[in-house]
Amino acid sequence: MKQYGYVTDIQQNRAKIRVVRESSCGGNCVSCKGCPTEAVFVECLADDSIKKGDTVVLTMPTKTFFKGMLLGYGQTVVLMIIGAILGYKFFGNEISSIVGMLGGLGLGLAISKVFSSKDRYEIKAEKADKDSVC
Fold first, then answer.
1. Mean pLDDT of successive 10-residue segments in the chain (134 residues)?
2. Which of 31, 82, 94, 104 is the most buried (most CB within 10 A)?
């Protein structure tokens, strides 16, 4: 995954980068205003060559992206299903199944929060070539 961004701040060896989100159609929705294209900020490690005001290319390995997706969504859904099954098995009614499902959701979100620190992502910022920037 590659994304272009603009360095807004650097403190020590961490850069704060403004990235404009692309929509699924490529981000060309200016005429109809149909897709949200607001900017998000990403923090990542940066080397000494990157300065405030530089345009950079952010890259993340595909493996890291899918691992994050599984951690964020996959294990949460599995814990919700397990919670619903255990709630129904132990108490035998639908209300306990719903409570078990919500408990699994809460546990899944808590686990995702603990294991998704910013430093685990392998996002790298490199200076962008003048020719490659749109």
1. 81 80 59 60 76 82 83 90 95 93 94 70 66 48
2. 104
Distance between CA atoms of 58 and 125, rounded to whole angstroms?
5
Q: Strand 55-59 vs strand 124-127: parallel, antiparallel, or unpaired?
A: antiparallel
pTM: 0.58
User: DSSP character for 24?
Assistant: T
Map residue 133 onto helix, strand or coil: coil
CA 85 to chain centre: 29
Q: Which of 123, 127, 2 is nearest to 55 (CA)?
A: 127
d(CA 47, CA 121): 16
Centroid of chain to Cα 20: 14
**Per-residue tokens: 117:** 């620190």
* Token pair of 54 as six digits: 């530089």
